[in-house]
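Fig. S4 source data, part A: sequence.
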Amino acid sequence: MFVEERHQEILRLLEENEKVKVKDLSKRFEVTEDCIRKDLASMEVKNLLKRTYGGAVRPDTLHPGHNNIVSTRKDKNIKEKQQIAKKAVELICNGDMIFLDTSTTNIELAKEIIKRELQITVVSCMLDIAELFTTTKNVNFILLGGQFNRSQNGFLGELTRQMMENFRFDICFMGVVGADLFNNVITTYVPEDGIMKRDAVQKSSQCYLVMESNKFDFKANYVYATFNDIEGVICERELSEEIKKKLEEYQTKII
């Protein structure tokens, strides 16, 4: 098969499946994985696809079903978010001060904290999380104020950052739109949200990503951290050996 024919077949597979994997393409075309990586790199230059760790996605793909409006995402993939939250809450000890960012997965984590009756301090800038903690006396809750961002249903911007300035957290739990292992970047959509996340990561002894496993295949447009900045990732299911190996290279734990 000629190179151009292979490229056309890769594009066809992308249209059908939204993503392709290097290993699968190597077997399908009976060429080396290095050859496929060169194909994908060449096609990315032409904006025919976006490379991800271990494969590629369509160029118009950020994250399927994901947008920057919290209200449209709160009730989606609840089972997966609950699984992540149950793992995350095990990392919290009585007496901890934690930060929860504007993440729909962190809404589920807040519910788990309440169920466990943990005696901790929680800092957040998200109204959905603040409303949950009005029902418990065990948690000392601090809401960071400032300019209200309707899409995130929380407070972002310079005033909010100023309120955070003097805090130091034992753990922060960060939501994710895209986690790009290939380029070692963790991304979100809203720049103001990304700046807040970056500040929280820098002010935390430990940082964990609370993320569905398919987010390893996608990218957003604002980088707020690298895998070197975080302690670990918390996903709803077992990760592939390929992803595990790359996370080990970054010395990032898998929960």
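Fig. S4 source data, part B ends here. The first helix runs from residue 3 to 17.
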